Amino acid sequence: MKPAGRIARTGKIARQLARLDRAFVWHPFTQMRDWLQKDPIVLVAGKGAVLWDSHGNEYLDANSSIWTNLHGHNHPRINKAIRRQLSQVAHTSMLGFANEPASRLAGRLVTLAAGPRGKSGKRGTRANTLTGPKLTRVFYSDDGSTAVETALKLSYEYSRRTGGHRPRFLGLEGAYHGDTVGAVSLGHIDRFHRAYSGLLFSSDAVMAPYCYRCPYNRAKPERADARDTRRCGWECLDALQRRLDSARKRDRPYTAFVVEPGVQGAAGMIPQPDGWLSQAMERVRSHGAMVIADEVMTAFGRTVGGREFVRETCGGDLPLFGTHQAGVQADFLCLAKGLTGGYLPMAATLTSDAIFGAFLGDYEDFKTFFHGHSYTGNALGAAASEANLDLLTEAASSRRRLELARVFGASLQALWSSSWVGDIRQVGLVAGIELVRDWRTRAPFPLRERAGIRVCDAMARRGVLTRPIGNVVVLMPPYCTSDRQVRRMVEVLNEAIVEVFGRRVL
Questions:
Q1: How far apart, in whole angstroms, are the C-alpha atoms of residue 154 and residue 334?
Q2: Architecture label for domain 126-374
C-alpha cells in the first residue's frame, strides 16, 4: 500500500529535482563524473520495503537504505514515537543536562548488552554465558564513524592512564570502520584510505578469515558457501597469534583489537566461519588487549538467522548483537545505523565501569572525557530508538526475522546455477553475492569492467535497489519484507546477471 499523499511529481518538477541534484549535490562514495551523465533516481516516498521515485516508479529497497532500515519505511509505531517526542522537545544539549528519552534508552541498551534471556527469562542463563566485561555506560554520538571514534579515544586514553605503553591498535585486512580520521586510521581498505595517509596514525592489520579467497584453503571451488567446504588449519588464527606474540616479545603490546563481529561489511560481506570470533577474542584477551566491537552494521538482529544460531537460542530471546551470537562480550560495543530503525542519525558506544572509572576525578584533575557532539543524545533519535527496540524484542518480530532469513537463504540457492556467481555468503538477513569471470578458478572481474555496478543498474531498471561493493552485490532486506518480495529481489538479481553477462549456466 502506498503512503498517504501524492507521490509522483509532474514531469517538470521531477526533471527539476534531478537538475538541482546534479547542479549542487556532491554524493558520498560516488563517481561524480558518471553520476552527472544521467538523471538520478530521486526517492520521494516509502512504505514498508517499498520506495517510490519522483516519477511514481516503485522499487524494492534491497539494501535497507544503505544497511540502516530495520522495520521498513513509514512504520506507524516509530512515526508515532517521533511525533510524540516532537510535541515535547526536539533537541536539548547533553553538555551539563539530561533528557528523558536518552536516559531511558541508555538503560535499555545496557540491559540488552547483558545478553539474551534464556528459557528461565533471566539474562545470562544461556549455555554459552557471555565471556567478557559487563557493559554499564553509554556514550552517545551521531553515526557509525563517531561511535568507533569514541571507542578509539576512550581505549587510547584508558591505556595511557593505566598501562604506561604507547597505545597501539590491531584490526583485520579489508577492515572499514568509518570516515573520521581516527576511524580511517583503523581501516585497511587501500582504495578508501590511501589518499588520507598523511593525516592518519599507523595501525596494524592481520589476515581476515575470507574463506572464499583464503590462500590456505585447499578446497576446490564448489557450488556452496566457502565456509562450509573449506579445508584449512585455522591459519588465520595462527597469524593472529603470531602477531600478538611478536608484539609482546617486543614489549609493544596492543591496546585493542577492532573487529566487525560475524561479517565484515565494506570488505565485501566477508563472513567469519563458526568459532572464529570467540577464538580470536580469547587470544586477544590473553595478551591483555581490549576488544572494540564495531557492530554498526551487524547489530540489532541483522546477522541472526539462517545457519547456526537457532539451536543456541531455542526457548529464549534471540541475540541482537553479533558478539552475543558467539557468546562473547567486547570492552566497547559500537552501535549506529539500525539504532533508530533507520530513521535518524544516532549512535552509541557502550563500555564498562572499569573504563568509566578511569575518567573520574576532582574537577582540577581534568580527567573528563573531552569529546562530544552538538546533537549527542538527540531526543527525537532516542524516541525512535526506543520504538525500534520495542519492535525488535517482540516475540512475533523475532519469529518473523527467523522465517525471513530461512526464506532468504532458500531463495539464494537458485543463484548457484549461474557460472558468473563465485560465492554466496549469507549471514542472517545479510548476503553478499560475489560475481566472477570463472567460478572454477575464482578469477575476478577487473575493476574497470564495473561488474557489480552494471548488475545493480540492471536491477534498478527492474524495480530493485541495492549497491555493490566492487564485484559483490549486497542484498539486505528490511525485516518487514514479505516472502514474495525477498524472492523477487533474488529473481531480479538473477535476471540482471543474465542481462549483463549473458546466460551461461553450469
A1: 12
A2: 3-Layer(aba) Sandwich (3.40)
